[in-house]
Amino acid sequence: MRATLAARWAVVAALVALLVTPQGALAAPHGSASTSIWTVVPSPDTGGGDDPVAVAATSSTDAWLVGDRFDLSTNHYLTLIEHWNGTAWSVVPSPSPRSGNWLYGVAAISPTDAWAVGFSDNSWWGNNKTLVEHWNGTSWCILPSPSPKTENELFSVVALASNDVWAVGGTGSGGTKATLVEHWNGSRWSVVPSPNVDSYNDLFGVKADPQGGLWAVGTGVPDTGPQQWETVAEHWDGTRWNLMSSANPNVSNFLDRPAAVSSTDVWAVGHQYDANYNEQSLIEHWDGKAWSVVAAPPTGAELRTAASVSSTDVWAVGTTLAGKTLTERWNGSAWSVVASPNVGTDFNSLEGVFALPTGEVWAVGTYDNGDNSGSHALILHAKRG
Description:
Blueprint: H1 3-9, E1 39-40, E2 50-59, E3 62-71, E4 76-84, E5 89-91, E6 100-110, E7 113-121, E8 129-135, E9 140-142, E10 151-161, E11 164-173, E12 176-184, E13 189-191, E14 200-208, E15 214-221, E16 230-236, E17 241-244, E18 252-262, E19 265-273, E20 279-286, E21 291-293, E22 301-310, E23 313-320, E24 325-330, E25 335-338, E26 347-355, E27 361-368, E28 376-382
Antiparallel strand pairs: 1-28, 2-3, 3-4, 4-5, 6-7, 7-8, 8-9, 10-11, 11-12, 12-13, 14-15, 15-16, 16-17, 18-19, 19-20, 20-21, 22-23, 23-24, 24-25, 26-27, 27-28
């Protein structure tokens, strides 16, 4: 399990007021440039540690974020789902079937058809089960999904149609782990065979390109070779999942989530470590022939997620080593850092990003103030500019 994931689960918080400005006004961020194109959008506070991880939208008046929250009354981790109606974010009730419940991916087809995936556990990592929830326009409900082994997790979901939804993650037991790909055909979820590069593998992100191809990326622990961790990249060609050769520029290399502009223009972001554990963000690109490393701004950071508007407008978000939000943008020639707000005085992180074809972009994550009040939802919004 990635340390970044485990850190999200460790937050226990009490109720405090959310420190954001009214919608449309930029908060007085700590260490951020005043020229940021991002605005902080208020989010409701559930009274526990709120940790949004992913966001998706169908329009400027229909967006979802998902994650988890800590319930102080039960000491349980519960699912967190919020909805944007064009004016405000609000918490929407969602099922939490076990004592630990985490949502990591969300996809929306229409205002009456959305999906969220993750996993749940009663024994704290001893028996994880996949968790799939569906929005039917009225409520979120759990749909049965396979859990092939004792450790089963879904981290990302993409919805091509109401009868064509894909989710990826990992499944394992006894110290080994395999990639896990599941598909919804309109009636049920089933496991689809997927290749593995190592004896321990995870897929953390999946996206679809406009041509109908699917792209999944993640990380594996090599059985042999110079790497301690290596990237994993796979492609669905309409018939089967195929393992692709991806770049490993350093000793440990992690890919988190991709963005697909076209079948010959795909991005994946993550981070890398050298032999002395110096950390730097990692950006890789597929040009139709090969995956290659593209220079990232030297921020020493972890990138979590990517989203694309066009071939000359791609976004990536994450966290700097100093605990500040990080947003980067591709303009067709190079990646550059875009100033982003930091509401929390102690720690700020962006975990998910989504871009609409209009150029409207949402980014979600967490912040805290180092005062034992725990984490709170951080929501940023940008329009074309």
